[in-house]
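fyi for ur records
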Amino acid sequence: MRVHVGAAATPEEAEAIARSLAEHLGVDVDVHVGDAAEPAASAEPPETAYPLDDDLGPTDRERDLQAEIDDILQGGPEKYRDRLSEQGKLFVRDRLDLWFGGEGGTRGAGDASDGDPAGLHFEDGKFAAFDDWHPNAPNRESDDSDGDDSEATSDRLSADGLLTGAAEFEGRDVHFMANDFTVKAGSMAAKGVEKFLRMQQRALKTGKPVLYLMDSSGGRIDQQSGFFANREGIGKYYYNHSMLSGAVPQICVLYGPCIAGAAYTPVFADFTVMVEGMSAMAIASPRMVKMVTGEEIELDELGGPRVHAEESGSADLVARDEEHARQLVADLIGYLPDKAGEKPPKRETRPPKFSPEGIDELIPEAPNRPYDARDLLDRIADAESVFELKEGYGPEIVTAFCRIDGRPVGVVANQPTERSGAIFPDAAEKAAEFIWTCDAYEIPLLYLCDTPGFMAGSQVEKDAILEKGKKMIYATSSATVPKQTVVVRKAYGAGIYAMGGPAYDPESVIGLPSGEIGIMGPEAAINAVYARKLAAIDDPEERAETEARLREEYREDIDVHRMASEVVIDEIVPPSTLREELAARFAFYEDVEKDLPEKKHGTVL
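which gave:
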């Protein structure tokens, strides 16, 4: 608002007028003295300024609404809330407090009316299914004149058992969903399904990550009409999961038994965390398994954390408890962008946990002597930045995020402590999925190659070594993020292909002096090529000398120096400089652009 006062007004008078008018009228005020173009004083209304004669306030109508909201926030029937502590888990609104409230877990079950967590932007759909259970619902028929409907309150459908909304998590805006296990065991019905679908569709529009805090027994069988097979029913969950896949990070944490339809959300997510002592997921419950197959089995044995972390590979991480689950996700999301096409967040560089000068001594000269790939990472990566995924599954390959000079990197490293680092089917599948995920979210890849190649034998053929090995090679071939490959020691057979070798468009292939690249290792080569020649030598001493000479000649042929001399690889570097070499190369190639052939998609994955 622009106000002119007489030319005789002093600056102090102009300031007093501006302040008084701004407070009284509730608008910005500029006071001009005389015909001056520039204001002599300006004022904004105080944030708490209201008209002085405003004596209006909340009515009974608003107070009634707030009472209804407070009631909804209590969740399901009290007896089910009371059982949560026995099960070792939080009431869902306390869980949201833990995730988004800063301090975490500050309320007791049933005490949800104390306020929303500080990081909760908003919740959608509190009143879902309100008409179906609440005694105050205007569309609910009740014979009780005082509004007390004991049958209704014993079957409380607060928010239809599913909370959805938006929140701030670790400085990042996210969408979230969280099952309320006190409402029919977190089962899914029509209104909750509608909320879930809306949340997913909004994530597609906003390009913000999604957190699924799962604790659901599956579809509500006695209410399946209207949500099971509909075009916009529960089946749409997985369509939307597929559309979101690679578009925004989807992270799922399991807090209870997720059975049947509910079990697909965690396996569709990019990353899945299970919690010891409470999580499980399976296509059918133990009771259903017994009915269908006759097998008697406990839920934990059927689909508990160990099963999915070590045998199926469906769990990326296993948490000790609810607080640990949150911390794991807080660490994980720090390596991920909000959406596809954005670069992952950088941090200040930190020196590695151990000196790079120890790398050469760490790596044994003998190709089959073990060392732990994690020890090598501790001398390359920024300290405390190595974040391993699927540690117990396919252990012959280590897949991990880390930072090198503050930059997030996805690491695929052969693990010599596990069967000499040979690539088994599970390890190949694990690596393929990890590479694919890194590529989706613009996370550069580092391959640390030390493998005798893909494992051979009848059992691995039955376990689909060719099919799963193909997927790993395909993922490496198709990844367009910057890739650096280090030939640490042995790079035999098709192992060098899967591990980002020269033919797979890496930005660099560098070798350490311990490196070897060949169709096979010396022992296998001598046996394959010279077995008959050696067998024909009668003198044992002469045969041993000949074998040693042939082995040494073969090793010279596959030595990394020969590969560098023939420009098969780009460079051999002193091991103590490997970290700085990688940092420089990742920085230089940060914005490299790669094109794939024009096509709809490949047919391998």
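The first strand starts at residue 2 and ends at 5. thats all i got for now
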